[in-house]
Structure formats: C-alpha cells, structure tokens
Amino acid sequence: MKAISITEPNKAELVDIPEPAATGTGEVLLRVKQVGYCGSDLTSYRGLNPMVSYPRIPGHEIGATIEQIGEEVPEQWKVGQNVLVSPYTSCGKCAACKAGRVNTCRYNQTMGVQRDGALTELVVVPYEKLLTSDKLSLEEMALVEPLTVGFHAVARGEVTSDDTVVVFGCGAIGLGVIAGASARKARVVAVDIDDEKLELAKRCGATDTINSMNESLHDRLQEMTDGDGPNVMIEAVGLPATFRACVEEVCFAGRVVYIGYAKAAVEYETKYFVMKELDIRGSRNAMKSDFEDVIAHLESGAFPMDAVITKTVPLEEAPAALAEWSENPGEITKIHVKL
C-alpha cells in the first residue's frame, strides 16, 4: 500500500509499505480518508524535531473509516463507521498518568512523531483511541485533533465568560485557542503581525485584534482592560518576546498558558511571577474531554472550516505540498491530504 515517508530532512516521498491487519485483541483497522498536516510534521520535514528519527511516516490528524475489527472490540464500533483518532499513548504508571493527566504521559508516543503516523492507506489503532460523530464529515473529523490542542490550553487557563483572554499567534493552533475561548464566552483578543490572519481570527471567535507590528500591544491591552491587563495570556507562537509579554501584560493574579516552544532561552523579569502571584502553566496535547468539546463545537457549525483549510491535495501530491509549506509557511494555515 502507499504511504508518505519523510526519509531524511527536507525529503518526503511516496513509498510502498506492507498492509497491516487488525489481528490483535482490541485492535481496529482503519482505511484513512483524510489527514491534516501538523506543525510537528513541518518541523520533522525540516529536520528540527528532536523527537523524530528517520524514516518517519507523518500524520495524526485523521478522518478514517473502520475497515476491520479485531477481537474484544465493543459492539459500538462497526465496519464502515467513520471515526477520528486520539493519536497519543499513555503508560498508566508515570506520575502524570497517576494524576489523571494522561495527555502529558512521560512516555507518550504521538503518531507521526515518536512512531509512524497515518499518512498511509491503512492503519491499525486500539479501539480506545477512537471517537466519532454522526454529524461531522471526514474532513471535519481530520480537523478535530489540531483544535483540541487549543481547547486544552483554554481548559488549562480555566477560562470563563468573565475573562479577557489574549492569544498570541493566529496559526492553526492559535485559532483553536481562539475558538475554545470563544466557546466559553470569553472576550478574546487575537495578536499577530498579519492582518489576513487577524481577519481569520475574527471568524474563529476573536472579539478584538491587535497587529503588534503596527500598534502598541501594551497600550491597547491597557485600554481594553481599564489598566488592569488581561486575565489570561495564551502563547501559541514560540518566541522569547511573546513568552515575556505574557507575564508582563497579564493582570495581577492572572494566568499564563504556554503551548509554543521558544526557539531560544528566555530571560524573564521574575519579579512579576511573585508580585502578581501568577499561575504559569504549560499545555501539552489534549484530553478526551477536549476532543468531545471540539466535536461539539464543530457540530454547531461555529468554526469556519473552509477558511482554515488552505488547500487539499491527493496523496501523490502530499510530498510537494509539504515542501511548499516549508518554503512559504506564512501563506498556509492548514493542508489536508485526501486519500
């Protein structure tokens, strides 16, 4: 069967691999129909993902149809059913798993990152990783997982309808944050340096936007909050400057959530941590509850799916699409591969 493999940095190609079968207890064989490229796929392609070895089949944003069912799979799962997949693993034994935070398992292996992913015709997964919806298309199902990352960050920030939430970055993950905070009826301020991305952020639920290249971030946020600063700052860019801005601009007793990885060491004025008594939290992957929240959000029709998916290509064109994204990252929000 056909698959896309990143064989080495800056090289992806269409390859033939053996077909799998759902032979193990609790396993389900899926025929993959739609896969979204993730930012981690791009960093893997560029050779910048330290968790990836080569060759690697990417892909963990999945819309698929059940092809075959192994033994001891519950009757709710049936051949021909459309599903999506939670692509993470959890050991059940580490400190995070014991605390119920399986999304950040110490030994997690995400599909397409630490292990091969789903950018292939068939893939086997445990039935416990399946979710479904009678209302979502396969295209929408493939959009669920990337949005869960943003929804999880919103949950980490304990966002409520009383909050003003600032989101740094209007890429695919940032748009998920914006949608998640909007779903909780918060006031959402999107910050970026691209006016087109800020317009898309409005369609995803942002109530206010700031182009930090053209406007004073500090002055605008002070005006919006009567001098207090926002209640929650969520960073989805990965720059030292935005990491620092979170603690500088957030209100006293505020919450800061980091999704992005800063590409360089970050120097802080640490007095703000103590003076403001800040809650500073990381956010990784997503919980099952986040998947359920995103499914409900997409079912409501509130998310502008067509505007977020920049282009859809067939499997044969997936390597070229990944190369194009690497060359022009600012022009692409989300690429889908249709099998």
From TrEMBL:
Q: Which CDD domains match?
A: Zn_ADH7 (cd08261)
Q: Where is the Alcohol dehydrogenase-like N-terminal domain?
A: 25-131
User: Is-annotated flag, keyword Lipid metabolism?
Assistant: no
Record keyword Oxidoreductase present: yes
Give one Pfam hit by family name: ADH_zinc_N
| UniProt superkingdom | Bacteria
Annotated Alcohol dehydrogenase-like C-terminal domain ranges read: 172-299
List, alphabetically, the InterPro entries matched. ADH-like_C, ADH-like_N, GroES-like_sf, NAD(P)-bd_dom_sf, Zn_alcohol_dh
**Keyword terms of this UniProt record:** Oxidoreductase
> What is the name listed in the Swiss-Prot or TrEMBL entry for this protein?
Zinc-binding alcohol dehydrogenase family protein
